[in-house]
Amino acid sequence: MFGYNGKVLRINLKEMSVKTEDLNMDMAKKYIGGRGLGTKIMMDEVDPKVDALSPENKLLIVTGPMTGNPVATGGRYMVVTKSPLSDTIASSNSGGRWGAELKFAGYDVIIFEEKAEEPVYLSIEDDKVEILPANDLWGTTVSVTTKKLEEKHAKNCKVLAIGPAGENLSLIAAVMNDEDRAAGRSGVGAVMGSKNLKAIVVKGSNKPKVFDDEKVKETNKAQLAKIKENGVTGQGLPTYGTAVLVNILNELGSLPTNNFQKGQFSGAEEISGETLAEKYLIKNTACYRCPIACGRYVKMEAGEGGGPEYETLWAFGSDCGISDLKAIIEANYWCNEMGLDTISTGATIAAAIELKEKGYIKEDELDGLKLEFGNATDIMEWTKRMGYRQGLGNKMAEGSYRLAESYGVPEFSMSVKKLEIPAYDPRGTQGQGLQYATANRGGCHVRGYLISPEVLGLPEAIDRFATEGKEVWAKIFQDLTASIDSLGVCLFTSFALGAPDYADMINMVAGTDHTGDSILEAGDRIWNLERMFNLKAGVDPSQDTLPKRLLEEPVPEGPAKGWKHKLDEMLPKYYEVRGWTPEGIPTEEKLKALGL
Amino acid sequence: MEVEVRYFATFRKNGVKKEVIPFEKSISVKELLTKVDIQEEDVAILLVNGIKVDSETILKDKDVVSLFPPVGGG
Question: Which of A144, A163, A260, A581 has its CA 20 to 30 A from that of B71?
Fold first, then answer.
């Protein structure tokens, strides 16, 4: 057994039982790990129609074969479950150091079943696995929970936890680890909260075995060199982090502003990566075995801590019309403390502001707080209220779709399948829009990052306004990403590495015989499996769409002026290139060819 | 004629974020890059008025040129 530990922890929270099972290695090889393996286990063990917040849903923590192994960025884990926000399969991944530690403790997967009667947490120290009471942790923020568990348990243990948002079943709650790293999207934190599971503390003492120690070192050395030589991973991301994108997207007129009403923001420079580096950055931070170190460690009110990513600068910044960087840093901190997804939280506040502006939300619902584009005064308070479900924050905790729907106007939610769309206006990035519409967890940019060819020119530059051929780009990016997410490495490596590199990586670590093509085929298999889960869950192809605003309202000004999204031109071709029926259903032949 | 040049990320030297540069006659982006001392191969994203162009593009009066080194994110 190489790369994997071959062990699954099965925790039944109703029976308070802990079982160790062998990992089905045939299944692991076919679905790689992480996102793919987790989806397969969900498909086999959970009815896709299950109420996501009921005890019958399961919460899976799944590492990949690269997690904890000596490869670049090999430290990621995936939270896989059914999403309470979108009703789709959810797989939300995170870096930091927690995932590698789970691998060192000897496990590949944890499956949580049922619901505990009282708040509990799981403690793992190699073979010693205990379900312990968490009454004293319940209600505390992520950093408080983390510090308390660090004091109580083994030196250098790693902590994964939910904050008040997860406990209060906010549908946009994240699972946090190492205090400020987040498996952010799809409301996975609410599923953890629904099980009365507050945290998982882990300490491990054994590294997994690799297939060929010498070749792993050789392959890793070559791949580290590629990452270092690449302009994005070797220079751009280390220097400015993801935040450098603020100015790029603004210059292109595709930085969504005021809830996607505009594509350019006059205050972009003030919330940019350049300004963040100049005024607030203390140092870079890196996840396990990461040579890129894109994380920002910044000055803030509470002293210092993890700083905002591009998506957060956008969500609380231009999407809310806010140019107060200090306020955004504080809002980011409170998202981490509450355990909230920064994208969905900022985007939901943006939707709420527009609902207020248009007269749907009334003044008497605000408890005297400000809810205006450009007004940063109360964004921290709204964030806390969403975490604690107080006042209007109670409705906002359900995400922008349900918030807008409660006023009878769901079209003001800029979401796909109820998951808020991130920071690229698809009217000026047509391929990215196709990707949003078809991503299996809803409005997500990192299921197939077509911004790379459309904006950054990687691996080659393509016309961002064109529709022709985008279906092929979307499929390839989506398939490759599904495999990367399953390996347990960071998607950012793909700026420098291609499918054959990932095949080398897994072959040297796990002793498999992958090729670049088989890596893409595994991604295609995972994509189709996710699609089948969603179809069985009742998320039908009519939901492969974009908000009405993006399809019908042209961008009012800037370089993308006049553009609407042309989904109708691309979607039928996308279904065809996927091998699906014109209605968007995977054909028998397609599923058979993929061994599904 | 005059052209506004906007510098981003590591292209910001001595804190200069943007400058307006006057020219006697029309010039190409390539010539502009020589004038501002930036190597063409170091430019990953080159925009004129927010639209991607190549370095042969001839600039017009009041054009805005945005220059980015290799950068990315997610």
Answer: A260
